[in-house]
Amino acid sequence: MDCDLCQKYVVNHDTWTFERGRDGKPELRLLNCGPSFLAPCRDPDRGCPKGSPENPKSLSPENELCYEHYQECEAVGQFPDDSVVRRNAAVIRSVIESVNRTRDVEFQSTLLRMIEKQCQPRSGTS
After folding, report:
1. Region of 24 on the Ramachandran plot (φ > 0 left; ψ -120 to 50 alpha; else beta)
2. What is the rounded distance in angstroms from the CA atom of residue 71 to the CA atom of residue 69?
3. How far is CA 55 from CA 41, 44, 50, 104, in A?
4. DSSP calls for 57-89
């Protein structure tokens, strides 16, 4: 869902589809009518998983295309001999490795907490 459209129209954020009026057209947001009418990114109590137009938590359309190209090349194991493609692939691979390291550390930390919790002596047992 495009942020500009979400700002203009009421969106169901479970299905990412427009809420529609009786006429079947997307409902316009009623601005300045309270928090329930705000786009989620403008409501400090809700927030949007995609961030906001000023601070998105998603790829730009250009970066999305670049990442799709990387995935296609990675899938077939063949990258064009191009300096821009090599640079982009190096950046993307670095980010993927960083995310994987973070995920591994978080998983190990959670696992250790669970093990420690299960291994603590229980009160009232001999």
Report:
1. left
2. 5
3. 10, 14, 9, 27
4. SS--HHHHHHHHHHHHHHHHT---S-HHHHHHH
Helices (H), the chain: 3-8, 61-76, 83-119
95: Cβ–Cβ under 8 A, 6 or more apart, which residues? none
Q: Which residues lie across from 26 on neighbouring strands?
A: 20
**What's the pTM value of the predicted model, to 2 decimals?**
0.56
Distances (CA, A) of 88 to 54, 102, 123: 24, 21, 56
pLDDT tens readout for residues 72-109: 999 999 999 999 999 999 999 999 999 999 999 999 99
> How far is 73 from 109, CA to CA, in rounded Å?
34
The Cβ of residue 11 has, within 10 Å, a number of other Cβ atoms equal to 22
Question: Is residue 72 within 8 Å of 92, Cβ to Cβ?
Answer: no
